[in-house]
Amino acid sequence: MKQQAGSPNLLVFGSPSRYVQGEDATRTLGTEMSRLGFIGPVLLLASSIVREQLEATWQVAFETENIPLTIQTFGGECSQNAIDAGVDIAKSIGATSIVGAGGGKCLDTGRAIAATLDLPVVNCPSLASSDAPCSALSVVYTDEGAFEQYLFYKKNPDLVLVDTALVAKAPTRFLVAGMGDALATWFEARTVIEAGSPNQLNGGTTQAAGALAKRCYEILLNDGLSACQSVNSQTVTPSLDRIVEANTLLSGLGFESGGLAIAHSVHNGLTTAPGTHEYLHGEKVAFGLLVQLIVEERPQEEIDEVLAFSRSVGLPVTLAEVGIVSLDSSMLSAIATRSVAEGETAHHEPFAVTASMIEKGIIAADSLGRRQG
C-alpha cells in the first residue's frame, strides 16, 4: 500500500477512534470491543510473553461479552510472510476483527492483517516502546530484520488500549526506547512545519498536531527520569502514566499528523547494518535525531539539551551504542544512501538532503556523543 493521496495545502489530522489507558485496563478489553460493536469471532495476535501474562484475563474478558476468541502467537518479525500467514488464519476462523497485543512489530502485523481483510483492528501495546500503536501505518521488515517498506492504511486503529501495569513490569529499556522515538516527535514535526512539507497523512500539519508534539517533548524532559525509576520498582505512578501517554498517544498523533524528517530516515539507514538489528526502533531514532539536529545546524544549546536528556535516561548517543563498533566507509555509505532513498522522510527538510550530508552528520553526531559520554 502506498501513502494516501493528499495535499500539503489541506490540513489533515488522524487519530484512533478510542484511546483507553490505565492500570489493569486489559480486564475491560471485551467491554470496550462490545461498546464498538465488535462481537467476533476475534483473532488475537499476541507475543509469547504477553500471552503467558494475559491469556487467562483475555478468556474471562471475552467470555463475559460472549465474543469468540482465537489466540495466535506472534513470531517476532513484521514481515510480509508473517502478515500472509496471519491473513490465512483469520480467514480460516471467519474473523470479523483483529487484536494485536504485544510490542510494536506485533501490533504492526495485526494492523496489516486487518487492513488486508478490511476488518476493524484493536491495538493493545504491552510496552510503551514506540509511537506506533495509534498510527495508520505499519513498518514492514524482511524476515532478517532489515527495513523494507511502510504500509499506509485508510484509517487509524478503532481502539488502542494500554495497560500500564504491563508497562511497569517490562524492562526499563523498552520505556526508554519509547522515549527515544517520542524525543524526535517535536523536532521532526517542527521541521515539517517550517518546510511546508507533507505529514505522514500527506497533508499539512494542524496546530493541534504541532501542540501535541511540543507537549510530548515537555513531558519527556519533566517526567522521563522519574518514569524510569517507577518501572525499575514496577510501580505505576503519575509520572509513568504521563510518559506512557507521551510515548504512545502524543508521539503517535504528533509523528503521524505532524510529520517525519531526517531522524527516522537515519533509523531506516541504520537497519542496513546487521549490528543494529538487536537494537530497538526508538534507540536508533534517538541517534538519528542527533544527526538531524546537526545537519539542520540547530543551536548548540538545543543539541546539548537533547544530549543531556538522552544520557540521563540511557538513550544511545554514539554509533557503538546502536551496535556499530567499527564504521568503515562502505558501511557509512550504505547507511547514508539508504537514508536518502526516494520517498524517504529526509526529503521533508526545507533544503535538499544528500547522502554526503548524512554521512557527515553521522560522523559528527558520533563524535559529539563520544566526547560527552
Automatic annotation (TrEMBL):
Show the GO cellular component annotation of the record. Answer: cytosol
Q: Which UniProt keywords apply?
A: Metal-binding, NAD, Oxidoreductase
Q: Which SUPFAM superfamilies match?
A: Dehydroquinate synthase-like
The residues covered by the Alcohol dehydrogenase iron-type/glycerol dehydrogenase GldA domain are: 16-164
Q: Which GO terms describe its molecular function?
A: metal ion binding; oxidoreductase activity, acting on CH-OH group of donors
- UniProt similarity note: Belongs to the iron-containing alcohol dehydrogenase family.
Record-given protein name: Unannotated protein
The species this protein was found in: freshwater metagenome
